[in-house]
Amino acid sequence: MRQLTYAEKKLLKHTDFINWKVDNNLHEIKILRKFKIQRREDYSLYNTMARKIWDLAKLIKDLDPKDPYRVEASGRLLEKLYTMGIIPTKWNLQLCDKVTASSFCRRRLPCILVRNKMAPDMTSAVTFIEQGHIRVGPEIVKDPAFLVTRVMEDYVTWVNTSAIKKHVMQYNDAKDDYELNNC
User: Fold this and answer.
1) pTM, whole model, 2 decimals?
2) Among 43, 96, 104, 172, which residue has the fewest nearby CB atoms (within 10 Å)?
3) 145-156 pLDDT, tens per residue?
4) What's the rounded Cα separation, in Å, for the pair 148 and 170?
């Protein structure tokens, strides 16, 4: 075996081969690209939450079907997941087994913008959010990882001072004369 050169030694100085993480998870990369997730930690957090939901659903299923606590716990879990928008209905505990990281990714603000046709694609949706053109309720949101619940979905709008909102209103002929003169 040959000796390493000075440059090779310098490159390998800070490399830890014992705790080396293999980064060949194609499914993870595909999801990161599809939903334009910038931080890998967000995706791993969604995976962790999905696993915890599976574990909690399994624990609830293992309880006696006639136990009143099982009915209450399953109702709470299903209600919470339904209001978050993770599951389509709140009537079946089997839906908890189908919760994945993608379920959480579909509730991110850029996905909601694309679904509401406020942005043509995910890339431009992320750009609009980062530039501060979008608000949810009264608050301006600049984080694309913002999760939108079913209730908050109705309150996703443009910021009043957004140039994009002005262009959309001009295109739709919805801008009144007062706004034209003052903006």
Assistant:
1) 0.79
2) 172
3) 999 999 999 999
4) 28
